[in-house]
Structure formats: structure tokens, C-alpha cells
Design goal:
Layout: H1 2-14, H2 16-25, H3 32-35, H4 38-53, H5 63-82, H6 86-103, H7 106-133, E1 139-145, E2 148-153, E3 157-160, E4 171-172, H8 183-195, H9 200-217, H10 220-241, H11 245-273, H12 275-279, H13 299-305, H14 307-324, H15 328-343, H16 351-364
Antiparallel strand pairs: 1-2, 2-3, 3-4
Helix pairs in contact: 1-2, 2-4, 2-7, 4-6, 5-6, 5-14, 6-16, 7-8, 7-9, 7-16, 8-9, 8-15, 8-16, 10-11, 10-15, 13-14, 14-15, 15-16
């Protein structure tokens, strides 16, 4: 009964289309079901395109942004082809079409991002219940999806293996094969929270979902990416909107003094419990124990051993970054994504991750977003919110 009531409340706040679109995103990599099936990925992309078309365009498609999005997804199609994912190149082309459709359909984007939050929130709550009662004895079973194994615990917790920070727990994996991949779903949610005036209930749900879910993934890369994005957001806010460059400089220096030794300590701790996690990413050299020379797990490693792939991914980042960094929320999203791409994850495979970044850029550049001083929403007070909107 409570579940039914909860579903009805969520549907009333977000809408059936938003929830469906949110669910479809978990059928696209980094969603574990999409990772193991190209067919599921293509069906989900087609479904998202169909849902997007049911929304009336709320603004004209901005030609420059559409061109840059197209260039980005073409570069991504090239990147995945270079590592043997020829068929996934087609998926990137379709994903690019959906991203371009989203530019003029802000309500579609907002509803979809809220739908994703509504998927993550109950899974995070379930994980909390499992953690409180103990993982031992609560395991239901496990399933293998391609190379990923997902474990199931009571009541409906999804987790996976890997050294956890919380003793006696398993790492939270909200429909992703690796906990660190959940960061791609957090990026548009955080952007939406930062730049829009959401309904109070939705804002509370979104904030809670991100904080709890990010903590339970126990992913150092996720926490660093979110931290970097928020710091960039605050610095830009101080330097441009508040026009206080001195305060921004002091804040940056204080953060650097605190963050550098803290991050170094945490990385060394991580290397102690999971040496391959840091060595394979080219962050800490483990000598013969490191397999970084054989991989392309992030841009650091790719530039050393697969330059063509690294260049293609960098072109994609630049193309989508140009419209992103013109807006305060877009900068926030881009820094989180770029940090993940450079240090943590092989983004050539993450079709849904790039789509979610594009949707975050759409949210940030919408009338409810905040433009940089060089943007069209420039006022005498710097960044300003011009209006607000709610999901359909």
C-alpha cells in the first residue's frame, strides 16, 4: 500500500513520461542492462526520442548549440569505433539526435532528470535499510550482466563487489555495474538543483537522493568529481556573479591548502585497499602490479597509450564544453564530467553519460539557468535567473 501511494505521489510530481524516460536511461550504458545488450540500448534510445517528440518545443533550437552537440557525438562515435565498438557508433548517432531534440524541449529534460532522481531515491533508501540491518544474511542472490555482477539484498538493494569504505557493507550500485559509474546520473540532478526553482518536495527528494546515493557508492572518484564541480561553481559565483575576485582567490587558496593533503591522503588509503583502482588509472605507479600501460580507463592513460582515442574524446569534451561553460550550471556539470573523464572512467563507452551531460547543459542554459556575463541573460548584476519552470 505504501509503495502504491509513493508511486502515485511521484507520478503526480514528475509525470509518467518523466519516470519512463528516467527508467530508459538505465538501459543505456552506464546502466548495467545497457552495457550487456546493444539491442536494449538502441530500444531505449528510440524510446527516449519518441518521448522527447511528445513534448512541444518550448523554444527555438539554438543552431550553434545543436552544431556543437552534433560535433561532440560524432567525435564520440569515432572514439568508440577506435576501440572496437563499431556498432555502438550508431548508438552515439541516435543519442546525438536525442540530445539535439532536447535543446528546445526543456520540460522533457527536466522531467527526465527528475525521473532519474525518483529511480535512485528509493534504491538509496533500500540500501540504507540493508546497511542498518546488516548485509550478512540479507542477500537474495546475484546476477551477471556481461562482465558485471550485481548482488541483490533485502528489501530491494542493488550492490556490487569492490573494497568498501564502510566496514561490513557492499558498495551501492543503482542499476550500474560499477558504483563509480553512478556519478553520470548525479551530474544532471545536481545541475537541476543548482539552477532551477524546483517544487520543494522534488528539491528535497533530489538533494537527499544525491547525498545518500553518492555516499553509499563509496566511490572516491564520484566524491572528488562532485567536490570539484561544486568548488568550481562557488568560485565562479563569487568571481562573476558577486564580482568579488579577491574573495574567490582567497577561497581557492584555502580550499587548495585543505584539499590537496586531504585528497592525497585518501588516494594513498585507496591505494592500500585497492591498489589496482589507482594504479590502473595512472594516478599511482605500482610498477609491475600496474596494468595502466595496457588500458584506456581514463584520459590520463589514453594519452599515454591510445592517442587517437584520447584526441577524439578531447574533441567531444571541447565541443560540448563550449556551450556548457557559458553558464554557471553548465560549468558545474562540465567540471564534474571532465574530472570523471580525465581521472576515473572510460567515457568512450558511456553513451548515457554524455547524453546526461548534454541534458545538464540544456537545463543550465534554459531561462531558469544562469548565464555567464557574456551570455544573453547578462544583467547589471551578473548572473540572473530569468524565470522558473516545473516538470510536466
Amino acid at each position: 500500500m505504501l509503495l502504491v501511494i509513493g508511486i502515485m505521489l511521484v507520478q503526480g510530481m514528475v509525470g509518467a513520461r518523466g519516470i519512463l524516460a528516467g527508467l530508459l536511461f538505465f538501459l543505456i550504458p552506464p546502466g548495467v542492462l545497457g552495457e550487456s545488450s546493444l539491442l536494449r540500448t538502441l530500444v531505449a534510445l528510440a524510446g527516449l526520442a519518441a518521448i522527447a517528440l511528445t513534448y512541444r518545443p518550448s523554444s527555438k533550437t539554438r543552431a550553434t548549440v545543436a552544431i556543437l552537440f552534433s560535433v561532440s557525438f560524432i567525435a564520440l562515435a569515432v572514439s568508440v569505433s577506435l576501440v572496437g565498438g563499431t556498432y555502438l557508433a550508431l548508438a552515439y548517432v541516435i543519442a546525438g539526435v536525442v540530445a539535439v531534440l532536447a535543446i528546445s524541449r526543456v520540460e522533457f529534460v527536466t522531467a527526465t532528470v527528475c525521473g532519474i532522481a525518483c529511480v535512485i531515491a528509493p534504491l538509496a533508501c533500500s540500501y540504507g535499510l540493508t546497511l542498518a540491518s546488516g548485509f550478512a544474511g540479507n542477500e537474495i542472490g546475484s546476477s551477471t550482466f556481461g562482465s558485471r555482477q550485481v548482488e541483490f539484498y533485502m528489501p530491494f538493494t542493488l550492490a556490487t563487489s569492490g573494497p568498501p569504505f564502510i566496514e561490513g557493507s557492499r558498495r551501492f550500485a543503482p542499476l550500474v555495474g560499477e558504483p563509480g559509474l553512478a556519478v553520470f546520473y548525479f551530474i544532471p540532478i545536481i545541475t537541476l538543483i543548482a539552477v532551477t526553482r524546483l517544487d520543494n518536495r522534488l528539491r528535497a527528494l533530489a538533494v537527499s537522493a544525491v547525498i545518500v546515493a553518492a555516499t553509499f557508492t563509496q566511490s572516491l572518484g564520484t566524491l572528488i568529481a562532485i567536490g570539484a564541480g561544486l568548488l568550481g561553481f562557488i568560485l565562479a559565483h563569487l568571481a562573476f556573479r558577486k564580482r568579488r575576485p579577491a574573495a574567490a582567490t582567497i577561497f581557492a587558496l584555502v580550499v587548495a591548502l585543505i584539499a590537496f593533503p586531504l585528497v592525497t591522503y585518501v588516494l594513498m588509503y585507496k591505494a592500500g585497499i585497492a591498489a589496482e583502482s589507482t594504479s590502473d588509472r595512472g594516478i599511482i605507479d605500482s610498477g609491475s602490479r600496474s596494468s595502466a600501460s595496457l588500458g584506456n580507463i581514463n584520459l590520463i592513460v589514453a594519452y599515454s597509450h591510445d592517442v587517437r582515442l584520447a584526441i577524439a574524446l578531447t574533441c567531444a569534451l571541447i565541443a560540448i564544453g563550449l556551450p556548457a561553460v557559458r553558464h554557471l550550471g553548465g560549468l558545474l556539470a562540465f567540471v564534474m564530467f571532465a574530472t570523471t573523464a580525465v581521472f576515473a572512467q572510460p567515457t568512450q563507452w558511456q553513451i548515457g553519460g554524455w547524453m546526461l551531460l548534454a541534458m545538464a547543459v540544456v537545463v543550465a542554459s534554459s531561462p531558469a539557468g544562469s548565464a555567464l556575463p557574456s551570455g544573453q541573460s547578462r544583467t547589471s548584476k551578473g548572473w540572473q535567473s530569468r524565470s522558473h519552470f516545473h516538470p510536466a
